[in-house]
Q: What sequence folds into this?
């Protein structure tokens, strides 16, 4: 299967949101309130307004996945711990931990 990486486009919104929720579904029991967490993840494409969202796309099959990218020396969302970055740590939305990865309360 041929694929490519490209910048997010607004028409990717529904596919990205579905993929993120599906990816975390297997960890639903790790979250105190899965319904609230799933609703939070279902808005993942909104991050494209704050940072670069890259799309993995199958040439014949559409959106396969997405990754959020924050370039070095750029401001990071408060979900990132101070000094976080580099290859040894992942952002909150990429970790599953009851104590450290919770959606913001509304």
A:
């Amino acid at each position: 299967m041929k694929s490519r990486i490209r910048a997010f486009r607004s028409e990717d919104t529904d596919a990205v949101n579905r993929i993120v929720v599906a990816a975390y579904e297997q960890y639903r029991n790790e979250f105190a309130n899965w319904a609230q967490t799933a609703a939070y993840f279902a808005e993942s494409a909104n991050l494209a307004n704050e940072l670069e969202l890259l799309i993995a796309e199958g040439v014949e099959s559409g959106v396969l996945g997405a990754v959020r990218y924050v370039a070095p020396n750029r401001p990071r969302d408060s979900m990132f711990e101070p000094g976080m970055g580099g290859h040894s740590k992942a952002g909150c939305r990429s970790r599953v931990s009851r104590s450290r990865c919770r959606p913001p309360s509304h």
About this structure: Strands lie at 3-7, 52-58, 62-69. The longest helix spans residues 13-25. DSSP finds two helices and three strands in the chain.
